[in-house]
Amino acid sequence: MPSVPLALEYTPRGEEYYFRVLPTNGVWDFLGGYSGVVMLYLVFAGLLSLPFARKKRLWPLLLFFAGFGALILLKNLGIEPFVRLGRLPLFDQVWSQRWAGPTWTFSLAVGAGLAFETIRCAFCSIKEKEELAENEAALQHYDSEVETKKKKGAGIPAFLVPLAALGAVFAMLMHLLPTTVLLLFIKFVRKNEFFQVFGPSFILGSFLSVLFLVLATIVLITYTRKGRGLYALIPLALTELWWALPRGYSTGWLYLKLIPLILGLYVVLQFFKGRRKSAVLTVLLLFASIMLIDYNSPRGLPDRYDPFTPAPYVGFLKENAPDARVIAGYGLLFPNFSSALGIKDIRYINSLAIDTFQDYRNSHLHALHPVENESSSLWFTGRPELFVHEGDGNTLYNRGIEKDFIARLPYYSLLSVKYIILPSAIDINEVALRASRIDGKTPVEFPSVYSDKAVSIYENPTALPNAYVVTKVKRVDDFKEAQKIAGTGDFASGIAAVIEKEAPAAFLSARPDTAAGELKKRSAADTASARIRLPAGSTAPGVTVSLPEPFSEDRPEPVGTTAKKEKVKSAKVLTESNNSVRVEATGPGLLVLTDTYYPGWSVKVDGESTEIYRVNGVVRGVFISAGSHTVDFKYLPRSFLAGVILAGI
Q: Residue 144 carries which DSSP code?
């Protein structure tokens, strides 16, 4: 419904006041747009005018756009069988109530334009028909009566078109009005805010919707009878949409909108009378009144502002850690905004996402799991609201992302999440300390690297680099088992990795049961050149294999001495884009790139193609031999190439 007030704000003195935000039913998750009753009326009138239209080429487009918009609307209103559309493949991945607003408003807007042309061709004057016929070079389709200049009566059927369209739209309005009026009456009138909010916003807005509908009917009836005034529908529709445009006026300024409204209706009258030139002055006065009210109102239209203007903390990240991965909580930095700003973020808002990453997120990035419901596959935003599947339904938890980050730290570190962004009021170290008192573990200390009045950024000291080389691998049967193991022991620290296929024979050092002992006995030179071939099947599931590498400070000392902690062998990411990554790494070992594994990626080591492995059940890697190498990952799926070829054909 138009003009529903739902927003509550506070003055600097702490006084509350309401102002209108949405021109719909007030809940942005449902419908999410307003096409206007005039456009809806035009669509109905255009469909009813199809039998009278001479311009037949428009009817397929009109039926398509009107039908598509109607299907989405009926589905969102919960009307069967249209609700079942959402259960079809692909359609079940989108929460259409939230995102369908642009779809159905665009469809009805295009449908209204096509309907306008259909009506003009169906009921235009004889002179206009001559012009249309000349433009289409189709005079032979018209009767000899075209030569007369007198307009014939359109007849009773044509007269009924505007009335039938009026009845259809009015029936829809009456279907939605009673419940909405009752709810808003209870919400606002009982608080003695009728004249401040409820009156000018909903009552006046609904009255004007009916008025616009009646005026549109009068214009159309006049056109079907006398062949003039149709173009008055254009300023009428624009005036209605202007009225419904959200501005955020305070309650005391809502009635002032009547001034531009009256001027807009006067423009409609001038178009109706055929005085288009004289309407120009009124249009100028109309714009002047709108600008004057908006400029002087306490809450008018906001100044122009680039929505992608980065906050100060974003500048800090891009300057000091442009390649670091981040995660944010409490809506501070939504993942789609991260993408627009060029910040690497493991969160997402997608209608389609990679299944392995979905499993990784549900099972290993949340301490409460399984996180499964109709919409959980669509987004992972870091907001504290979390739906957890329990029994036959879902339970809503309010759980800050910092709690999951601490509880599942190894799994975040495996994805190279270096920074966590939180509101300044939340100290992640205090949260970690409280958690340690419960589980008895020593808390990890997260250094604060940035802080202002609104935001604090903490560094994850356990985050793995974006690319690194491991010298120990373990083979398992499937990605779920690999993901589970990856967050434990040497795998979590970047010393070892999990794969799901047999490693190349050239990289196997010895039989699995003697590999470690043999490596400790060999000299550095012998080990550097070692290439032991094992029989097929040597890397059976569950077997850990050490890859050949010279002894160094990065390796454990021989048995009987004090062992030193192994260090992660990081590799250097030289360049990267959306579909390519170049890495410089030193082998031998398995180069792990902590980017999501997905079919369509290929890899070349020093210009020679080789195989990509899924590592730790979610990221990708490639085996490299001893020495320094340049590794190029590229994304060019065969499906894309096939599409290009078919498009060319």
A: G
The alpha carbon of residue 395 and the mean position of all alpha carbons in its chain are separated, in whole angstroms, by 24
- State residue 19's pLDDT score: 44
Q: pLDDT band at residue 235, thresholds of 50, 70 and 90?
A: very high
Identify which of 285, 316, 297, 278 has the alpha carbon closest to the alpha carbon of residue 19. Answer: 297
Beta strands in 351-495 (DSSP E): 379-380, 385-390, 393-398, 417-423, 448-451, 455-459, 467-470, 472-475
Hey, what are 115's tokens?
Answer: 């309907």
Measured in degrees and rounded to the nearest 5, phi and psi for residue 221 equal: -60, -45
Model confidence pLDDT, tens digit, residues 89-115: 766 666 665 667 788 889 989 999 999
| Strand 619-635, strand 580-596: pairing | antiparallel
The reply to whether omega before 81 is within 30° of 0 (cis) is yes
Closest CA to 72 of 51, 90, 86, 88: 86
Alpha-carbon span 29 to 636, nearest angstrom: 37
β pairing state of 496-499 and 472-475: parallel
Please compute, for residue 544, the number of CA atoms within 13 A of its CA located in the half-sphere on the CB side. 14
Nearest in space to 176 (alpha carbons), one of 24, 294, 338: 24
Q: Give me the pLDDT at residue 475, please.
A: 93
Q: Is the peptide bond before 588 cis (omega within 30 degrees of 0)?
A: yes
What's the pLDDT band for 307 if we cut at 50, 70, 90? confident
Strand bridging mode 455-459 / 448-451: antiparallel
For 502, list phi and psi in degrees, rounded to 5.
-65, 135
Q: Which residues contact 365 (CB under 8 A, 6 or more apart)?
A: 380, 404, 408, 411, 412
pLDDT band for position 417 (50/70/90)?
Answer: very high
Contacts of 394 (CB under 8 A, 6+ apart): 373, 387, 388
- Lowest-confidence region among 214-223, 477-486, 521-530: 521-530
* CA–CA separation, 492 and 473 (whole Å): 12
Q: Whole-prediction pTM value?
A: 0.65
The count of residues in the chain is 649
**Residue 276 identity (one-letter amino acid):** R
485: left (phi over 0), alpha (psi -120 to 50) or beta: alpha
Nearest to 161 by CA among 104, 212, 222, 108: 222
- The DSSP output letter for 256 is G
pLDDT of residue 554: 34
